[in-house]
Write a structure and sequence with these properties.
Radius of gyration: 26 Å
Distance between the termini: 56 Å
Number of strands: 29
Strand content: over 45%
Number of helices: 4
Length: 406
């Protein structure tokens, strides 16, 4: 943090030991998932990581005794709105007042004062929406103060220092990281849950990737099939074509589901696709691997992203997926996030031979196709080329999983 960040309101330090209880009526204002953090012992302070754009303060009797409050910031930040939630302390009647600020607050600057009572109702919560600083920036500290806005250094110095949010830079290698789950990212809801399932295999590590736009990832909750769920604090922005840092699974396990919590996106953010990718454990693949016991010999060779835009002048028709040594005797396909009409599939054996499988089927989302037996019997697979029948009349962003059976 800068030297200016180490300034704080005297009232924030004074109230650190007082503002400890949240009244029952406040619960209705605290339902939105918050990406802001509350430093230990500093209940009148919120710190916003680089990708976080919303913070909510619970207001109790100790804070309301000041009659009016102001908001201060330890770093320059653009504040869009401040929402004041008033209600009866025992529940019942409530109302919200939104202050449209829309201006840049300099470090150490205060907003105008707002009252802690309004038409017989008391202030229960204050929600601040800001433009996230963006990756590569340090966290922003916000604090509530009394109307006089007295300042002191002690409390801000107690705010834990954090490094700037890292940018994911590892290059995406599809052959090493199998995409085992995906969804269109619901950034305004601040989280997504991706169901994986034990049929995808046993993995020793996971990563998060993105397509179509930057993905501001705060944390990842992994629920293994056999192990205990655990959370990893990533606080990074995953740009398209890059990977988050590795999330180890120790010991290797099947994955029930993965929940990703987001930072608040900027108002101009494009809607990206969240991708959960896994690295198979050493014993999963191969003709005598664990796949035979747990999945009937079926393994996922890879995925093809079937993307078409109505404004594209050169739509793609061939999508290549790398194979494995095999030998394999059957293929099947699964579409994710959208339906895909799949025509012929061409198998490159790797020694000059090819085989064409006439699939000619519409793949519905999350439904397995029928198995397609290879006419030549068991074959190794160097690669598979898909030729889906796409239309440019509407945008399509789907993924096709290619599976093979030993």
């Amino acid at each position: 943090m800068t030297a200016m960040t180490h300034r704080i309101l005297t009232v924030a330090a004074t109230l650190a030991g007082l503002a400890t209880a949240v009244l029952p009526a406040q619960a209705q204002f605290m339902t939105r998932e918050a990406c802001a953090l509350t430093p230990e012992g500093l209940t009148a302070v919120r710190t916003l990581p680089a990708t976080c754009g919303s913070a909510t303060f619970a207001i109790d009797a100790a804070l309301r005794r000041f009659g009016s409050l102001r908001l201060a910031t330890g770093e320059a930040v653009y504040v869009r709105t401040i929402t004041l939630s008033y209600g009866a302390s025992t529940g019942g009647q409530h109302q919200q007042t939104q202050l449209a600020l829309h201006r840049l607050l300099a470090a150490g600057e205060f907003t105008d004062a707002f009252a802690t009572t309004h038409r017989g109702l008391v202030l229960l919560a204050v929600t601040v929406d800001v433009n996230p600083a963006g990756y590569g920036a340090a966290q922003v500290a916000l604090a509530l103060a009394d109307a006089d806005g007295r300042l002191a250094d002690a409390a801000m110095q107690a705010v834990p220092k954090t490094e700037a949010a890292p940018i994911a830079t590892a290059a995406l290698a599809s052959t090493a990281w199998m995409m085992i789950g995906s969804t269109v990212a619901h950034l305004p809801e601040l989280r997504d849950r991706v169901v994986v399932g034990r049929d995808k295999g046993r993995f020793d590590s996971l990563v998060i990737s993105s397509r179509g736009g930057d993905l501001p990832v705060q944390s990842v909750l992994v629920s293994p099939v056999n192990g205990t769920p655990f959370a990893v604090d990533l606080r990074t922005v995953v740009a398209p074509g890059t990977l988050s840092r590795v999330i180890p699974l120790d010991p290797p396990d099947f994955v029930h589901e993965v929940t990703v919590t987001y930072g608040t996106p900027s108002s101009l953010a494009r809607q990206p696709t969240l991708e959960v990718r896994g690295h198979y454990s050493d014993n999963w693949l191969g003709k005598v691997g664990e796949n035979r016991h747990y999945a009937g010999g079926w393994v996922m060779l890879g995925t093809a992203d079937i993307v078409v835009s109505p404004h594209s002048s050169a739509p793609r028709s061939n999508f290549r997926v790398d194979g494995h040594e095999g030998p394999f005797k059957k293929l099947r396909f699964v579409a994710r996030r959208g339906s895909v009409s799949l025509g012929d599939v061409t198998i490159d054996v790797g020694d000059g031979r090819t085989e064409t499988v006439p699939v000619n089927a519409v793949l519905l989302p999350d439904a397995q196709s029928v198995p397609f037996a290879l006419a030549a019997g068991s074959l190794p697979i160097a690669s598979i080329v898909l030729s889906p029948k796409l239309t440019a009349k509407s945008r399509l962003d789907a993924t096709v999983e290619v599976w093979a059976q030993y």
